[in-house]
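Run log // design_07
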């Protein structure tokens, strides 16, 4: 029995890993060139930037075990010096490194954009329009992508997909920048409720990141991002660079600046169920949007869905 999992983020890879470890045949498709979804790291001559999820925390034993194992393998580390009660974990050498242990040995096909799903008597046909048009057949399908994207692919399965309409996301504009000066007096992390600088982090302060020119990540708050969502990237870059300079409070020379727009950055209203699984249709859904705005929620959703597919109890 073959399972196609659409989405190579934390939820999709957690599901794939558990199925594969149980001896199941699994193929993972993702439209991106990298792995991890919003556990994203951009690398280039200007530096290394974690431009999606900034860190993860663990409350459930299953996710803590995963992080401990990832740390042993060199895929995760602790970001020290935080004031929170919970430990902040980060991937190494970037946030996308967190999913490396889950992806090891899996059949993962990147840059594969799925355009349609069709159920037939013996299973599923998946239409792929990139990198070349074609079809892939499978016995079971799991969608581990943002709820609005899953809703689109499930247009022919309205009853099953109907609960997804209750899921609400907030967008996020993220600025990645490199500065010539060392902002020694600035804190490594700054947070506020909204505005253009709702989150600022000195990316080079994280373990495993290359030292040298300071790299910073600035994430705008949900309301600010919503207001400016459809603005030109160049205009948003200028706005966020100005906001960063104001925050720094000292003259800053910005050597590199780029932005990324996340339309589905943070879950504001979750489904309230760990996953959706239709055994008769061999169709499943998983993601952080099932449980809440945490990377741990994505892991637990995919892990528990796989357990249900295998017929296991999934606490």
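design_07 sequence
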């Amino acid at each position: 029995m073959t399972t196609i999992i659409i989405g190579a983020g934390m939820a999709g890879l957690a599901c794939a890993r558990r199925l594969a470890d149980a001896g199941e045949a699994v193929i993972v498709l993702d439209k991106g060139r990298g792995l991890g979804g919003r556990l994203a790291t951009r690398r280039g001559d200007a530096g290394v930037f974690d431009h999606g999820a900034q860190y993860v925390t663990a409350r459930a034993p299953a996710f803590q075990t995963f992080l401990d194992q990832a740390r042993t393998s060199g895929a995760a580390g602790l970001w020290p010096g935080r004031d929170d009660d919970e430990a902040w974990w980060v991937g190494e050498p970037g946030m996308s490194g967190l999913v490396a242990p889950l992806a090891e040995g899996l059949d993962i096909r990147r840059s594969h954009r799925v355009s349609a799903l069709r159920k037939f008597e013996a299973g599923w046909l998946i239409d792929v329009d990139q990198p070349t048009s074609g079809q892939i057949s499978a016995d079971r399908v799991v969608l581990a992508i943002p709820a609005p994207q899953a809703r689109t692919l499930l247009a022919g399965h309205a009853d099953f997909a109907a609960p997804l309409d209750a899921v609400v996301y907030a967008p996020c504009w993220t600025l990645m920048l490199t500065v010539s000066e060392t902002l020694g007096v600035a804190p490594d992390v700054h947070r506020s409720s909204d505005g253009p600088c709702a989150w600022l982090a000195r990316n080079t302060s994280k373990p495993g990141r290359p030292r040298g020119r300071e790299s910073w990540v600035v994430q705008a708050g949900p309301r600010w991002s919503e207001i400016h969502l459809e603005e030109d990237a160049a205009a948003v870059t200028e706005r966020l660079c100005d906001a960063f300079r104001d925050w720094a409070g000292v003259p800053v020379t910005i050597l590199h600046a780029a932005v990324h727009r996340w339309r589905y950055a943070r879950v504001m209203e979750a489904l309230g169920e760990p996953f959706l699984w239709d055994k008769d249709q061999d169709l499943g859904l998983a993601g952080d949007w099932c449980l809440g705005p945490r990377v741990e929620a994505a892991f637990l959703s995919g892990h528990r869905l796989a357990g249900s597919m295998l017929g296991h109890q999934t606490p």
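The mean pLDDT is 95.
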